[in-house]
Specification:
Number of helices: 12
Structural class: mainly alpha
Strand content: under 5%
Largest sheet: 2 strands, antiparallel
Shape: globular
Helix content: 55-70%
Order of helices and strands: EEEHHHHHEHHHHHEHHE
């Protein structure tokens, strides 16, 4: 626990530039893919919808939205102690995730420009949005005396290779869950303005519409490739990515429950609402969704939370690294087993879901 009467200290690469958070299985990842395979995609099955969405991107509704106003021009030293540390971590994680999206979409637009111009334009316009988001978040970090060297991040982070279909599953869910995260926080703070500790949250209503439109783009791309939705392999992959996205968010947020408490939110209840809404939204394109209302779902996630607490205690111990490695193994295995049990829970066929229209 950070002393609430002191400002936390962060390791810096140079004055005012924060050392990026260590990469773990739960941190935002950077991705690359098979550009030639993506360039060869035939979009004819849903080209009209894709063109309509790209036209909406061109309109650029948030062109003038991400402009800092006078409310930012003040000292933020009153946000201190653990709250300050958790808030800086929130800004860093959010900035890293948005910047990861920018890099992927920008590279896709460049590689696909001559071979698949429709897809390339969609990625180019989404990269524009993600760059704005990342820049706005990085500028917010500077209010706390820190920033990220995004050029250094580009060169230093490891890149995970995903086949195009996995990029589509993962980014669709990432954009949609981003929408529900932002709008849920915005609506809460709209009803409880006394909990809005920093002005960035005023921007979340328009901001989340970017996330929603990006999700719609990937929805349309998935529908243009029926084999990604309409067979038994697709059902297995949809289950996997739904579970991966939900479990990662839940484990991350429970570790940082103090941040949500500073906004007047209960991290568990917040995550349950976001998971439920994202699961319902996914039912508009995915053939199956998870049974997130079954008590077993959160019971098993809570077991993973307890295991993660033990893993954190090991990392913070004075034991040598090689000793820590062997101490962690049974806990990794325990979390892996819970993930398998969660994956094997019977999913819900979207046609059986009330209120979901495909």
């Amino acid at each position: 626990m950070v002393d609430s009467l002191k400002k936390p200290t962060f390791e810096e690469m140079r004055p005012g530039v924060k050392v990026p958070a260590k990469e773990t299985i739960l941190t935002p990842r950077f991705y690359t893919t098979d550009f030639d395979e993506m360039a060869a995609m035939n979009l004819c099955a849903n080209e009209e919808e894709l063109r309509a969405i790209i036209e909406e991107f061109r309109t650029d509704y948030n062109r003038h939205h991400f402009v800092r106003d006078e409310e930012f021009e003040q000292s933020w030293d009153h946000i201190d102690g653990e709250t300050r540390q958790l808030f800086v971590e929130f800004l860093e994680r959010s900035c890293t995730a948005e910047f990861s999206g920018f890099l992927l979409y920008k590279e896709l637009s460049r590689r696909l420009k001559d071979k698949n111009p429709l897809l390339a334009e969609g990625f180019q316009l989404m990269s524009r949005d993600e760059a704005r988001h990342a820049g706005f978040l990085n500028k917010a970090m500077s209010d706390f005396g820190l920033s990220l060297d995004l050029g250094f991040l580009t060169k230093s982070r490891s890149y995970t290779f995903f086949k195009p279909k996995f990029i589509f599953y993962a980014t669709y869910l990432s954009e949609k869950i981003g929408y529900w995260r932002y709008i849920t926080i915005y609506r809460h703070l709209e009803a409880h303005p006394e909990d809005r500790i920093y002005p960035i949250f005023r921007f979340f209503e328009n901001w989340c519409q970017d996330e929603n439109r990006h999700g719609d783009f990937f929805d349309a791309v998935l529908k243009s490739q029926p084999e990604l939705l309409n067979n038994w392999k697709a059902r297995l992959w949809c289950r996997f990515f739904l579970l991966s996205v939900f479990a990662t968010m839940y484990l991350n947020d429970i570790q940082r429950a103090g941040f949500y408490a500073s906004l007047g939110l209960d991290a568990r209840e917040y995550d349950k609402e976001v998971i439920e809404k994202t699961n319902e939204t996914a039912g508009r394109v995915f053939p199956i969704v998870l049974d997130v209302n079954k008590p077993e779902f959160y019971d098993r996630l809570e077991r993973c939370v307890k295991t993660n607490e033990k893993l954190t205690a090991i990392v913070n111990s004075n034991a040598p690294k090689f000793v820590q490695f062997f101490q962690k193994l049974p806990h990794y295995a325990a979390n892996g087993w819970q993930f398998v049990k969660l994956y094997l829970m019977k999913p819900i066929n979207v046609e059986a879901m009330q209120g979901v229209v495909r």
